[in-house]
């Protein structure tokens, strides 16, 4: 089932907030994006490394839906692919509506398993003041709603390029909703 497309791919060899757009990236099974600072079996996010550097890396790949960029533009924010730190920008897939364990086939070979939601921090407001309120809010029951994309691990490696098809495979029910990772 073809659910969407990759619109951009990005990476950064250092821990920068924004990642550089690339013509293609290579996903490495069990590790993440080749040449990206978050590549590895254990956690690479600096605040998490400080807590426990032996934690498994559930944040190997960061994906954001291009529809969020569209919404942000409508609210007066100019945000391009990669600028919020994502490795893969998608269109046509409700990333935030996926359950934990959903598989995304990106292009011919690469498969990413969705592990959870990105937990955006104040760095987003450093990038553009007021942006954090656009990507984190409260739902009808007062629950925290995170909209800054999803995180995943690489199950099968391969090249990923803009224009690649995205196929979604849902896990067997019952589905677990995404939580922050």
From TrEMBL:
This chain's protein is named MOSC domain-containing protein YiiM
Name the source organism: Streptosporangium brasiliense
* Entry's transmembrane regions: none
Taxonomic lineage from the root: Bacteria, Bacillati, Actinomycetota, Actinomycetes, Streptosporangiales
List, for all copies, the residue spans of the domain called MOSC.
20-169
Q: Per its UniProt record, what InterPro entries does this chain match?
A: MoCF_Sase_C, MOSC_domain, Pyrv_Knase-like_insert_dom_sf
